Amino acid sequence: MLKRIAIFILGLTLSQAALADLHCTAISGQSLDLQYSALASVKASLTTTAGVLQFAGAYIGEGKYSLTDEHGLGAELTTVQTTSTYGGRCGRCAPLTELQTNVKLTYSAGTLLFTCP
Amino acid sequence: MKKKTALFFLLALGACAGSGGALLLSGTSKTSVVIESAESKNAALESVYNEIRWIPGRDQDVWMMNQSHFGRNPGAHRWERLAIVIDKTTSPKTAHYYQIQPGPLEWAENLKLRPVPFRASCFTCHNNGPRAIRPQSDSALAPLTWREVVKINLWNLRIKTYGRIVYDPEHDSADPTAKVPFRFHAPRDNDLLPVPVCKHCHQEGGVFARGALRRQQIGTIQHLVKTGQMPPPGFWLSDRESRQLTEFIMGFP
Lengths: 117, 253
Description:
The structure holds two protein chains of two kinds. Chain A is mainly beta. Chain A is 14% helix and 52% strand. Chain A has an eight-stranded antiparallel sheet with strand order 1-2-3-4-5-6-7-8. Chain A is globular. Chain A starts with a helix and ends with a strand. Chain B is α+β, with helices and mostly antiparallel strands. Chain B is globular and about 70 Å long. Chains A and B meet through strand 6 of A and strand 1, helix 4 and helix 5 of B.
């Protein structure tokens, strides 16, 4: 019985730990707030000059989430982690790229690219 | 009158040939050139200085470089000595990259036997052997004479006319045990740049082939596009290609 309780608590802890919040911005001015659990589900809130649009969806593989917006329209969100290793030991040839998450949102109004420092 | 005109043209032709020969001599002379790199930066984003020398040969060319990440006069032991040896007997030509103990820019075959570990992954910048030399034109600490400017232009012409140069497959054999690999091997690191205008030259086959570019080279790609050096004159990125490039640099498939 104790073992089961321990496993339950561990599972609960891990699932909470996997939840992440990200605040992302696009060069074109929009912002995207994400609450997601890696490899499971995501909730997204897109703020543009036209207002706020909510999305929710599930992980479909290879860093992609299939979403639906509040009007029932389909969307897709892709996340990637950039790497800092390409700059070499000390950025020879090009300054280092900071390690960060980048997000691409394709929805009814087009595609937006975000950086999430 | 006709005789005089003919003589004039003959003299002009002779002068051109003479100056061309002098330029060629200047380009292949055995002295090195020190530049402040317009591209490379150290960890603090400060200038990197390169002393470069070309040692041409019948079967192989050697491009040697002493590189300083510690300013113009870092002291003899702080220059990093590097070499790219181009085997001209293969088709396409093959390049082997070396990092060797600090020392003068003089090549000896036995240096191949005493390489030291790479400090950076060569392939992330060198997709096709030696790259065009791009000095900071207004450098205060490494100003160039006009002769050196001519020499660098001739060297760049030589580099351009090698055509496709592949890396020596020995690098792939050595990478599994190397602390710093010659190149990154994960599939994502090797995603090919999909932008059509770049692929005119950055492909594996054809007269102007310079080798397909990969994701591990985004630092260099980004720098050259941002500074307007790529695409070269006569080519430009369409809006769609520009977006494609941005997505590739940001890491999207």
